[in-house]
Amino acid sequence: AGGAIGLALRLPGYPTGAFFAVTVMVLSYHIFSEWLSLIVKTRSSQAVKKLLDLEPDVAYLVKDGREQEVPLEQVRVGDLVRIRPGGRVPVDGQAESGESDVDESLVTGEPLPVEKRAGDRVVSGALNGHGTLLVRVSAVGEESFLRQVIRSVEDARALKPGLLHLVDRVLRVYTPLVLFTAAAAALFWLIVPLVVGASPDLQRAVVCRPERAGHGVSVRDRHLRPAFDRPRGRRSGRTRRADAHR
Fold first, then answer.
1. What is the pTM of this model?
2. Residue limits of the P-type ATPase A domain (predicted)?
3. Structural domain tally of the chain?
4. Which of 103, 180, 189, 234 could form a disulfide with 127 if both were Cys (CB 3.0 to 4.6 A apart)?
């Protein structure tokens, strides 16, 4: 608003540039905050997508000695699932038979494949090696290990990093402070002329250095008159009261 007034009225000495500088600073704070937030959300979304890609859509259910391909949503706790060579583990469970090396690096961070045999636990999202495993399901769907990791990543995405919290705190303090300072300055310069009753230059002199202003001016009949005798008065330090009728 202050910058718009300066452009419209073109008042001499009006700080139009300063108003626009403050506007640019506030906008920069907001843009920087939104940019950081966008980066965090984008990276979190990419991480969630990679984790979701680890979960297969189907599982190979073994029932009554027969194997059938079923959607993962139809698998229940206690079912027996076959993990084929090179396939993703769709559920959490315990191996009942078979032997294979399972790559759990994308899930648990283990850099090397882990050998799995009967009695070992497997987690959803892991990559099976060259062997075959029969796994008794202990957790599936939202209760599986992979789904819990995805949920943790999504919860972390909803939170803001420390830098964004710092920017928000600065903005919460900065904007009200600027508005309060502007209002106080406006009231101040509206009240000072009523109290001092002088020109703007003398107002600033009285506000900044009142003791010096008192030495250089005298008041008579509510009019401010020069008080120094030029040039002799300056050299001698003597003052005289100006003639009100001159």
1. 0.48
2. 54-154
3. 3
4. 103
- pLDDT, tens digit, 9 for 90 and up, residues 175-226: 788 778 878 887 887 776 666 555 555 555 555 555 544 544 444 444 444 4
- 94-136 pLDDT tens trace: 999 999 999 988 777 778 888 999 999 998 888 999 899 999 9
**Same domain membership, residue 187 and residue 174:** yes
State the helix-helix crossing angle for 16-53 and 145-158, rounded to 10 degrees. 180
- Residue 45 CB neighbours (<10 A): 13
Type of residue numbered 1 = A
Q: Are residues 167 and 209 in the same domain?
A: no
**49 lies in the same domain as 62:** no
Judgement on whether residues 186 and 130 belong to the same structural domain of the protein: no
